[in-house]
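Morning, I've got a small favour to ask if you have a moment. I owe you a coffee for this, so here goes:

…
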Amino acid sequence: MIVWLNGTFGAGKTTTAGELTALLPGARIFDSEYVGFMLRHVLDDVPHDDFQEWTPWRSLTVATARDVLAFVGGTLVIPQTVLVEQYWDELAAGFAAAGVPVRHYVLHTDPATLRARILGDTEEIRAWRLDHVEPYARAFDAWLSGRATVVPTTGRPAAEVARWIAGDLLRPGETQAARG
């Protein structure tokens, strides 16, 4: 199984992923950004704003996750922001074709908390993260909130969010909103 943690940059995906893998036996973090880093050596001369634009990133993310799960089993927790619905559709279709179940969560916080978190980041990534707040808000309203279980993170430490997700994974069926 894959547990995909989506959300804007600074929402707590990476921290929550670490907490969540400690709660799920056999779980591992698969940082799909490394697929993008690998592809930069080959495709960096191809015009792009984000490596997710490259079709090979999407197909290799699916293939790598599928093969890792076939090799070691368990659960892969993928903390990766995907704001383009077409890219999510391609990833989801690839996992479905491979027979890999996916639980998709979006970690969501209020704008004031998000901005405070980002302003606490290092200067080198602060501007980049701030530039993505509005695209995230548009994606959240347009499609993301309807295609994932929304997990509010405002005022909740990552360990609590991870415990909620771990509990949700044990409940049958998909939920669309996590209140609490």
Q: What stands out?
A: The first strand starts at residue 2 and ends at 6. The chain has a mean pLDDT of 91.
